[in-house]
Structure formats: structure tokens, C-alpha cells
């Protein structure tokens, strides 16, 4: 979770920028908005909140001392003026860390509050990162596809297609940003024709679409 601490800080500040929340609501929103699920535990969230309280970026509304509630009161966290400035600083960070799988989605979620030049830098950096990944996966598939069984090969192709779709989506967003469009293009960039799939091409060639998958379940022996 150490690698996630920076992006968790951005996510918490961004959600508190919208409205004050207690810890349970924060965790629920973080999981649903960014897809972290069980990976984000209270053991990760509360140390982050403690650090942010010490830095003065947030404040907490605790129940008054000596007032026994009927049931345990929930502490509500609010963004401070220092926290708003810190949030703005984090939004301006568009370097390589913002292109990573775990970080990109959080930065993208707050693009409406991000400077246009930073948005474009993050999108282009993310696309370059994925294009590098595509090159590696295609090369590996060319070398190993004859040694893989049908299921393993189909899984590799599925992963390849997922990255290709994200690259197309990013290309559409980048085109919108460069043309100054406020809204991203519906559906992102170009898509493979419905019912078609991409198959592995030779070195230096683009994957080609075919009408149906080449996957075949092996006959039982």
C-alpha cells in the first residue's frame, strides 16, 4: 500500500473537496469510485487521514468531550484551506506516476478541475506507456503462441485487446483535448466492428479484424 499512499491522498482530498464525509462513507466512495474494492482497508485509510490531519489539510468534527452519545458518533472529516491548496498542487502533477495503472484513474476522475495542459500531458503519457506495453506483449506472443494451449493463448489475446481498446479511447480523448472540446468524445476513439475481433499480426503489422474468434476448445482426449 506504500505505492498507493500518494494517490490515496489525492483521492481523499478530491472527495472531501466535494463534501465533508465520515470515515465509513469515505471508504465506501473510494471503493466505488475508483474500483479498489477490498484492496482499500481501514488499516490503509485511517493512517492516511491521521497524516493529513497532522499536516493541517483536513479537520475532524469529533463529539464534544463528556457528552455520552446513545451510540458511537462518527467523526466527520472536512477539507481545510491548506487542503484545498494541497489538492490543487497534486492535480498539477502530471508526471510518470500519473500514467500508472493504479494512479491514472484517480487523476482522470478529477480532470474537470485539472488544467488543460496537465490533462493532455497525462493522457499522452498514459498512451505512450500502453503502447510500450503493447509492443512487449505482441513480441512475447509471437515467440510463445505455439507453446501455449488454446485457453492460455485466448487469455493473452484478451489482454492484448483490452490494452488496444484503451489506446483507442485515449487517442479519442487526446484529439478532443487538442481541439478544445469540453466533453470527451462519446465512446472514445475508433472501435473494432461489432462481432469482430483482433488477431495477432506479424512483426511491424497492425492486428487485423476477423468475423469471429479463432478460439476453439480442445477436444477431450
What does this molecule look like?
With 221 residues, this protein is mainly α. It has 2 domains: 2-65 and 74-109, Arc Repressor Mutant, subunit A, CATH 1.10.10.10; 115-210, no CATH class. It contains 7 helices and 5 strands. α1 packs across α3 and α6 packs antiparallel against α7. The protein starts with a helix and ends in an 11-residue tail after the last strand. The model is unreliable at 188-218 (pLDDT under 50).
Oligomer: single chain
CATH architecture label of the largest domain:
Orthogonal Bundle
Global mean pLDDT: 78
Could you estimate the helical fraction of the residues in percent? Answer: 40-55%
Q: What is the string of SSEs from the N terminus onward?
A: HEHHEEHHHHEE
- Rg, alpha carbons: 22 Å
Within the CATH hierarchy, at the fold level, what is the topology of the largest domain? Arc Repressor Mutant, subunit A
Number of strands: 5
Identify the CATH homologous superfamily of the largest domain. Answer: Winged helix-like DNA-binding domain superfamily/Winged helix DNA-binding domain
Q: Provide the structure class.
A: mainly alpha
* Beta-strand fraction estimate: 5-15%
Inertia-based shape: globular
Number of helices: 7
CATH top level assignment of the largest domain: Mainly Alpha
Query: What is the count of distinct domains?
Result: 2
Report the major sheet.
3 strands, antiparallel
Termini Cα gap: 46 Å
Low-pLDDT segments, ≥5 res: 188-218
List the helices and strands and how they pair.
Elements: H1 5-18, E1 21-22, H2 23-34, H3 42-55, E2 58-61, E3 76-79, H4 81-91, H5 101-109, H6 116-144, H7 150-178, E4 197-199, E5 208-210
Antiparallel strand pairs: 1-3, 2-3, 4-5
Amino acid at each position: 500500500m506504500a505505492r498507493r499512499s500518494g494517490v490515496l491522498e489525492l483521492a481523499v482530498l478530491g472527495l472531501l473537496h466535494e463534501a465533508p464525509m465520515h470515515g465509513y462513507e469515505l471508504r465506501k466512495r473510494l471503493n466505488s469510485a475508483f474500483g479498489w474494492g477490498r484492496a482499500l482497508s481501514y488499516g490503509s485509510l485511517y493512517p492516511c487521514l491521521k497524516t493529513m490531519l497532522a499536516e493541517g489539510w483536513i479537520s475532524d468534527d469529533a463529539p464534544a468531550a463528556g457528552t455520552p452519545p446513545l451510540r458511537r458518533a462518527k467523526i466527520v472529516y472536512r477539507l481545510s484551506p491548506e487542503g484545498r491548496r494541497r489538492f490543487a498542487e497534486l492535480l498539477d502533477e502530471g508526471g510518470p506516476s500519473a500514467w500508472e495503472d493504479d494512479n491514472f484513474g484517480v487523476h482522470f476522475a478529477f480532470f474537470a478541475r485539472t488544467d488543460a495542459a496537465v490533462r493532455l500531458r497525462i493522457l499522452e503519457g498514459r498512451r505512450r506507456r500502453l503502447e510500450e506495453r503493447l509492443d512487449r506483449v505482441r513480441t512475447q506472443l509471437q515467440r510463445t503462441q505455439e507453446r501455449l494451449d488454446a485457453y492460455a493463448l485466448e487469455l493473452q489475446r484478451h489482454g492484448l485487446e483490452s490494452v488496444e481498446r484503451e489506446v483507442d479511447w485515449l487517442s479519442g480523448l487526446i484529439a478532443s483535448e487538442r481541439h478544445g472540446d469540453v466533453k470527451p468524445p462519446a465512446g472514445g476513439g475508433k472501435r473494432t466492428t461489432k462481432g469482430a475481433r483482433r488477431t495477432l499480426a506479424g512483426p511491424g503489422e497492425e492486428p487485423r479484424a476477423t468475423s469471429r474468434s479463432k478460439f476453439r476448445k480442445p477436444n477431450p482426449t
